[in-house]
Amino acid sequence: MQIRTEGNDSIILTKILMTINILVYAITSIMSGNILVMDYQVVSFFGQANFLVFKGWYWQLITSMFVHINLVHLLGNMLFLLIYGSRGEELFSKLEFLLIFLMSGLFGNLLSLLGNPNMVSAGASGALFGLFGACVMYAHSTLKESLLTVMIYSFFMFFLTMGVNVNLFAHFGGLIAGLIFGYMISKSRKHENEIDYE
User: How far apart are CA 194 and CA 101, in angstroms?
Assistant: First the structure.
């Protein structure tokens, strides 16, 4: 098992991502005139409004990962990011970490387009579920944990987030992408560590 540690900067990407999310929240709260809850128009512009994405606002698939609807939403996601971001930076290289975060979030947002055309959503949850999925799958592949245990744990976490106004498409898409990334990375490292004898 390869662990990626880099001294005092071992969670630098997690800190950077948290800072970006907090700064974006500060900006959107100023634009909304409310620090507790974001204005619908602000979220529609910077978050993901399906009807606007279908009209060509494809950049929302990325920006929505850094926009949060209210303060509780932000704090919950930042706690999740601190926990699984820290773990992810122990397990993966910086490039792998960023790819997992961004591609999982993107896949979750793309899957969200299958939902209500008028749906407006925002948040880092898809990307965070990707980090979570990658971590647990990597642990399965390298520490020989039961795949059944990994899947039960993963979908238990998924079902815990079910509720009113929760974008399950983003959560599910991010989780699946993360599980795939974790599996692929573990297999690539296993291949790198193989020694051929002649």
Answer: 28
**Would you say the C-alpha torsion 155, 156, 162, 166 has a positive or negative sign?**
negative
Which CATH number applies to 9-192: 3.30.70.660, 3.40.50.2300, 1.20.1540.10, 1.10.150.20? 1.20.1540.10
Instruction: Break the chain into its structural domains and give their ranges.
Output: 9-192
CA-CA distance, 37 to 122, in Å (whole number)? 13
> Residues 6 or more apart from 35 whose CB is under 8 A from it?
29, 71
H helix or E strand, kind and range, residue 107: helix 94-112
Place of tokens 């949060």: 68
pTM: 0.85
Radius of gyration for the chain, computed over Cα atoms and rounded to the nearest angstrom: 18
**pLDDT confidence bin for 181, thresholds 50/70/90:** very high
Asked if 62 and 50 count as a contact pair (C-beta separation under 8 A), the reply is no
| Tokens found for residue 122 | 């925002």
Residue 3's nearest CA partner among 120, 68, 96 is: 96
13-59 pLDDT tens trace: 999 999 999 999 999 999 999 999 999 999 999 999 999 999 999 99
Q: Which two tokens stand for residue 131?
A: 């980090």
Distance in angstroms (rounded) separating the CA atoms of residues 64 and 51: 14
145 Cβ contact partners less than 8 Å away, ≥ 6 residues apart: 139
